[in-house]
Design brief:
heterodimer; A: mainly alpha; two-stranded antiparallel ribbon; 2 strands; B: alpha/beta; 6-stranded mixed beta sheet; 12 strands; 36% helix; globular
């Protein structure tokens, strides 16, 4: 970027910067739209500001938020563990094991999650009793399916097992991104395949796995609202209950949305630190810049930025 | 395992990658405490032979023994039985390997790289492994760099850590796969010094290299391979100064 002093003398380059009139037109349009929106907040009585704040910290809403968080954590736990297992199976040299994984991903990714939720909820139609025993032989324990699988359990299972299919592809991409020499060096030291995977390959794959997993978690938080269809008392359902009682529809939906926004914002911050942890030891991938820094940087250099906050250069010189 | 057996013995070893015939009947022996250097043009099969020795590649014909035991198989009567993964791993643990591109674990510190296999594979305690790691780092001239990550080291330093990592398993044989080929010229010397010192401790070494100076000075035996066969073998000085075969002559005239 800078011109070296020895070669061209010490004078700094002074040039008139390129003008960007289109950008200023864009800024003006956005400013007008924003002003209209803010104006409507104050002038439109239908927002009923004040109504939603009354419910913001009430116990049904907080209880619903708790269930939403619980469901997100449980479903993501199932999804991540299941995804790792499926990804390792998918890469197995045994064709049967890798086909089973392929089939699972095909099935769970190929059907709508809403349909899967309703199916898990109605599992009792297909199997009224669940038993533990010898296949085709005697059974030891039997339970009523409806008692064993509550609406919440059905919801968590449906979301988690569906998520596992997506996580499997993310984990697989991560594993494939690790240089083959790593597994080779580890095997040469006498490590078994399981140990190589656990200690060498997966920790390095995390760098590639974590960012999309953060996205999946944020997405899952919002997807839990689908459980309203099987009457799980999560955040959206609780909001809907208030609406059914009071008929103040939009204000309550705005309140619910604000809660979702608060949690997703917190998750975004958490993701930043998790990524930094797994990026240790490699100088390139550590996301050093926070969002305000990124915006400042991009404005200063007039360059677009990628997700890591690095500027995108279209020319061949990358650094 | 008596002293009479060679550390490495290859008899008529063949290796194919699909239709490509990479090793076409290799015969050679490395005695205990010997340093064997293998030279040859790229694609001659020398790295493949090295990788066969610790079973990173499987051979298709012939016999390959390390320390009197078959590599990757067990013989009972007339039949060969493939070894289980755990047994292959156990045998690999006794053979150190150093790669052209170092292959250090980038998510671990230098210390973590060195103590990983001793603690996880051999079950050595962490304190004991750490103590040994300090010694080894001193031996390769990198005392005090325990907490650095591989990225923070130069190529030459990384390769010396890789040598320390292999030595931490107390191997009976060390394989070197072009250990200095990926290094800047001014860093090659440090790595060769460490290898020379190691040879003087009596370690059995199998070195695929392009460093003729090292081969002449440190090597006990020199093998020239071309197109999957051993063209010429002998004392390094003889092979280098007085090659018998046309192919050896033409190769040496290009590299010397």
């Amino acid at each position: 970027m800078s011109i070296s002093g020895e070669a061209t003398g010490t004078a700094e380059v002074k040039a008139v910067p390129v003008k960007h009139p289109g950008r200023w037109v864009g800024v003006a349009v956005i400013a007008v739209l924003a002003a209209m929106l803010i104006n409507s907040f104050f002038s439109n009585p239908q927002y009923k500001w004040g109504q939603q704040w009354k419910y913001f910290f009430t116990s049904p809403i907080l209880h619903g938020l708790g269930i939403t968080l619980e469901t997100t954590v449980a479903a993501m736990a199932i999804g991540i563990v299941g995804g790792i297992v499926l990804a390792v199976m998918r890469l197995s040299p045994n064709p049967l094991i890798s086909s089973v994984s392929w089939f699972y991903i095909w099935l769970f990714r190929g059907t709508p999650v809403l349909v899967q939720i309703v199916m898990w909820f109605n599992l009792a139609y297909l199997f009224p009793h669940l038993s533990l025993g010898v296949p085709f032989g005697p059974t030891f324990v039997t339970a009523d399916t409806n008692k064993l699988i509550s609406a919440l359990t059905a919801g968590i299972l449906a979301l988690g097992l569906n998520e596992a299919a997506y996580m499997a592809e993310i984990v697989r991409a991560g594993i494939l991104s690790v240089d083959e020499g790593q597994a080779e060096a580890a095997s040469a030291l006498g490590m078994t395949r399981t140990l190589v995977m656990r200690r060498i390959v997966l920790p390095q794959a995390m760098r590639v796995i974590v960012p999309p997993t953060g996205n999946e978690t944020i997405s899952m938080l919002k997807t839990t609202s689908l459980l309203i269809i099987i009457a799980v008392p999560e955040l959206f359902q609780q909001g809907q209950n208030i609406i059914n009682r009071t008929f103040i529809t939009l204000p309550i939906l705005i309140m619910v949305s604000i809660w979702y926004l608060i949690v997703t914002s917190i998750l975004t911050v958490g993701q930043f630190y998790v990524e930094r942890y797994f990026g240790r030891g490699s100088s390139r991938s550590a996301p050093a810049a926070t969002l305000p820094q990124r915006i400042l940087r991009a404005m200063r250099y007039n360059r677009p930025i990628d997700h890591d906050g690095n500027m995108i250069f279209s020319g061949p010189s990358k650094r | 395992m008596s002293d009479g057996t060679a550390m490495v013995r290859a008899q008529g070893v063949h290796k194919r990658f699909g239709i490509q015939h990479v090793l076409k009947g290799i015969d050679l022996e490395v005695q205990r405490g010997e340093v064997m250097c293998v030279i040859g043009p790229s694609g001659s099969g020398k790295s493949t032979l090295l990788r066969c020795i610790n079973h990173l590649e499987q051979i298709h014909a012939g016999r390959l023994e390390v320390d009197g035991e078959l590599v990757g198989y067990q013989q009972r009567g007339d039949k060969l039985y493939e070894l289980k993964e755990r047994e292959v791993a156990r045998k690999r643990a006794e053979i150190g390997m150093v790669f052209q591109h170092f292959n250090l674990f980038p998510h671990m510190t230098v210390l973590g790289n060195i103590i990983e296999a001793p603690t996880k594979v051999k079950g050595v305690s962490k304190t004991e492994a750490t103590e040994r790691a300090h010694q080894l780092l001193a031996q390769v001239g990198l005392a005090g760099r325990e907490d650095a990550y591989p990225r923070q080291l130069s190529g030459g330093q990384q390769q010396r850590v890789a040598i320390a990592r292999a030595l931490a398993m107390d191997p009976k044989l060390m394989l070197f796969d072009e250990p200095t080929s990926a290094l800047d010229p001014e860093l090659v010397g440090d790595v060769l010094d460490v290898m020379r010192d190691l040879a003087h401790t009596g370690m059995t070494m199998f070195v695929v290299t392009h460093e003729m100076g090292f081969a002449r000075e440190v090597g006990d035996k020199l093998v020239f391979m071309d197109d999957g066969v051993v063209v010429e073998a002998g004392a390094p000085r003889d092979v280098i100064t007085n090659p018998q075969h046309e192919r050896t002559k033409s190769f040496l005239s290009k590299v010397l």
